[in-house]
């Protein structure tokens, strides 16, 4: 095939691929951006941390959106050629569909390599980085969980009430604190306002109160003592608050292939850890082949003139994508629970849709109807007399 024609078909695929990739990635980003905006407004997370989160989450999005965009690009690109009768013109010049698809084969190989690079190298690194950013944010913004007009008991031995909390959560107004950390004594503290400042020590913060009183009561004695202050510091221990925010534990999703293989060799077969590691391994190996599967299905569907309109192509692409990822999710669930071997469960989407794509490709190269049963039914229905369709 000539170089001009190769570039022409390549251009017909790459332009919609880039647009589709941008659209699908932005759609996935939208939900995350809403969550991140809430972190900035209500919890005071810095723009630097937000930028790091977006950077680290991008590879996991591209891992999914690259095959999706490739599927839609083939349906739109070859669909446009089919609608404008250019494929018929090329066939009349003696060019087969397999020859016309050479640029598609090349692009499929390139995207297959990119997908393997994303799943095997980039995504484990980005997942580990994202876990680290979330852990750092949880440590530095440990008090972001305080709610106004609520008795907050997250800190051990303290119940903190604030009438108002100003974003990003470090300025409190109308404060009341019940402090029972000292044995045999209970302190009730009232303050006009307070400021949370970081402490030099690891898990400690300081709540600096202004203009208030401390009411102390000894449990072994009657009476109480009242102390007025202009500035009073209350130490907040975030260790208990961060108990659920553990140090990143290097889960299978964060591991490299070498680490996954090492985990598999160390864990017992059929155990939950072994199954999770095996599912992650086969997921990384199977997911890149979605580009091959989608190209096998999209090409024969797109060259049918009656199915080549962009609205139909978009609808078909969504249906194929939904079916593929439903099968993939089901395979992950079955693999982790031990219902099916992960080596089988994670390859079911590629096996099912790949077989369908190979069948459709063979039918279209032989100039046969893609779905003979549907064609037979439609022809039989069209031959029936109109009077038989009228309800008497």
Structure described in brief:
The protein has 392 residues and is an alpha+beta fold.
Can you describe this structure?
With 392 residues, the chain is α+β, with helices and mostly antiparallel strands. It has helices spanning 3-43, 47-83, 86-92, 97-100, 102-140, 257-266, 272-286, 290-302, 310-337, 342-345, 348-365, 372-383; strands at 151-152, 158-166, 171-179, 185-198, 204-218, 224-237. A six-stranded antiparallel sheet has the order 1-2-3-4-5-6, with no helix packed on it. The longest helix is centred in the first third of the chain and has 41 residues, at 3-43. The model is unreliable at 376-382 and 386-392 (pLDDT under 50).
Please describe the biggest sheet, giving its number of strands, its sense, and whether it closes into a barrel: 6 strands, antiparallel
- Please report which band the strand proportion falls in: under 5%, 5-15%, 15-25%, 25-35%, 35-45% or over 45%: 15-25%
Count, helices: 12
**Distance, first to last CA:** 59 Å
What is the alpha-carbon Rg in Å?
31 Å
Mean pLDDT: 79
Low confidence ranges: 376-382, 386-392
Strand order of the largest sheet: 1-2-3-4-5-6
What is the total tally of β strands?
A: 6
């Amino acid at each position: 095939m000539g170089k001009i024609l190769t570039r022409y078909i390549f251009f017909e695929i790459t332009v919609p691929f880039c647009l589709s990739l941008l659209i699908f990635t932005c759609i996935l980003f939208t939900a995350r951006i809403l969550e991140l905006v809430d972190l900035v407004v209500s919890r005071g997370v810095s723009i630097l941390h937000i930028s790091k989160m977006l950077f680290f989450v991008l590879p996991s999005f591209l891992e999914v959106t690259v095959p999706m965009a490739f599927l839609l690009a083939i349906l739109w690109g070859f669909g446009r050629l089919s609608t404008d009768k250019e494929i018929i013109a090329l066939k009349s010049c003696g060019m087969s569909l397999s020859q016309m698809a050479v640029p598609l084969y090349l692009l499929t190989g390139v995207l297959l390599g990119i997908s393997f690079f994303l799943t095997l190298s980039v995504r484990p690194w980005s997942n580990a980085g994202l876990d680290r950013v979330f852990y750092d944010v949880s440590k530095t913004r440990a008090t972001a969980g305080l709610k106004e007009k609520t008795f907050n008991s997250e800190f051990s031995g303290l119940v903190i009430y604030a009438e108002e909390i100003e974003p990003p959560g470090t300025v409190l107004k109308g404060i009341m604190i019940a402090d029972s950390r000292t044995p045999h004594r209970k302190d009730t503290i009232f303050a006009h306002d307070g400021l949370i400042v970081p402490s030099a020590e690891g898990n400690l913060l300081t709540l600096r109160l202004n203009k208030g009183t401390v009411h102390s009561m000894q449990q072994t004695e009657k009476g109480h003592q009242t102390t007025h202050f202009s500035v009073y510091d209350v130490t907040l221990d975030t260790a208990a608050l961060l108990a659920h925010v553990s140090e990143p534990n290097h889960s299978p999703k964060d591991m490299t292939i070498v680490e996954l293989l090492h985990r598999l060799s160390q864990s017992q077969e059929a155990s939950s850890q072994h199954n999770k590691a095996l599912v992650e391994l086969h997921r990384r190996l199977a997911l890149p082949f979605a580009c091959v599967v989608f190209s096998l299905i999209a090409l024969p569907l797109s060259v049918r003139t009656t199915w080549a309109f962009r609205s139909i192509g978009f609808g078909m692409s969504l249906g194929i994508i939904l079916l593929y990822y439903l099968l993939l999710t089901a395979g992950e669930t079955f693999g982790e629970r031990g219902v099916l071997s992960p080596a089988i469960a994670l390859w079911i989407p590629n096996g099912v849709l790949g077989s369908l794509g190979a069948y459709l490709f063979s039918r279209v190269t032989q100039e046969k109807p893609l779905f003979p049963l549907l064609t037979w039914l439609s022809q039989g229905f069209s031959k029936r007399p109109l009077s038989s369709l009228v309800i008497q």
